[in-house]
Amino acid sequence: MSLPSADRLRALNADLHCHSTVSDGWLEPEAVVLRALANGVELLALTDHDEVGGIDAAAQVAQAHGLGFVAGVEISVSFAGETIHIVGLGIDHRHPVLLAGLAQVRGGRDVRAQQMGEALARVGIRDALAGARRFARNPALVSRAHFARHLVASGVMPDVKTVFDHYLVRGKPGFVEHEWAALEDAVGWIRAAGGIAVIAHPARYRLSAADMGRLFDRFVAVGGEAVEVVSGAHSEDEMRRFATVARQRGLFASRASDFHGEAESAVDLGRCNPLPPDLEPVWARLSPAAAPRD
Ligand code: AMP
Ligand code: MN
Ligand code: MN
Ligand code: MN
Fold it and tell me: What would the pLDDT profile of 210-244 be if each residue is shown by its tens digit?
């Protein structure tokens, strides 16, 4: 299979951040790949939260259909009192350093989930943890999204976004402070596994301008190389803002739906805007397990 030309590569329908039932997505890894194919994606990365358990199944289906696929992960990090997500792309998902790091991050989720259940009980919402667990296909990965789905299903709130606004963000009764991985550790695990570290959806972080600057400084200093400029979680203004950051800092740019499921995601797999044409696509640095067809 020949490598695509530079122009073809730039125009590739790459979607380098999405979720399966291995974390808080609605579709099994195989179904994520099939949906991506149906939507015209040419290069896909599955990036479950703190977990690589879906990579083999997704890679196999992608390979069978000739879809370019790279192994990925989205690691939860604490920085300046905020939760930051660092995506790793093109990782060796069997690398022991990465696996040990991810196991450590996941380890904290159980205690946090229990505390969330207790916090919600204090405001009269009983058995929320048991309810969240029913939505979590991977018992090691209970996410706030699973709590939100349970609260919607049990009629407490009309939709997931409203649950977050009323219960699950800082200052609200179901929010529990949690210390995730250190930035340098997350980037270090990704690099140890041969991957490229990407700052996910930067516009979503509630950081002061100074802290945002520090986040990028530190990220670059510890070996981070890319930023999600186009994200399902970004408006066009936010996309332009982080396109400027990518240019100023010489970072590779990523393009990502952050798809979780039809009902919960603004942007479907492969349906993001194109990258601004002058940016260097991060996928120019990735070697897909199955090359896209020209
Ligand atoms: P966690 O890693 O358990 O803290 O959960 C974070 C996940 O919750 C994110 O990856 C999203 O899937 C989801 N999420 C966070 N904030 C919101 C929000 N405001 N509306 C809907 N989903 C959200
Ligand atoms: Mn999520
Ligand atoms: Mn995220
Ligand atoms: Mn995500």
Answer: 999 999 999 999 999 999 999 999 999 999 999 99
Compute, in angstroms, the gap from residue 161 CA to the centroid of ligand 4: 15
Assigned token pair, 288: 């897909």
Structure tokens at 184: 């340098």
Domain ranges of the chain: 6-103+182-290
For the CA of 83, the closest atom of ligand 1 is: 4
Q: What is the mean pLDDT of residues 97-119?
A: 97
Contact 10, 281 (CB under 8 A): yes
Q: Say if ligand 1 is within 6 A of residue 23 CB.
A: no
C-beta of 76 in contact with ligand 1 (< 6 A): yes
pLDDT above 60 (res 75):
yes
Closest CA to 86 of 97, 73, 96, 98: 73
User: Across residues 284-290, what is the average pLDDT?
Assistant: 85
Asked if CATH classification 3.20.20.140 holds for the domain at 6-103+182-290, the reply, yes or no, is: yes
**C-alpha R_g of the chain:** 18
CA of 201 to the centre of ligand 3 (A): 7
The 10s digit of each residue's pLDDT in 130-153 is 999 999 999 999 999 999 999 999
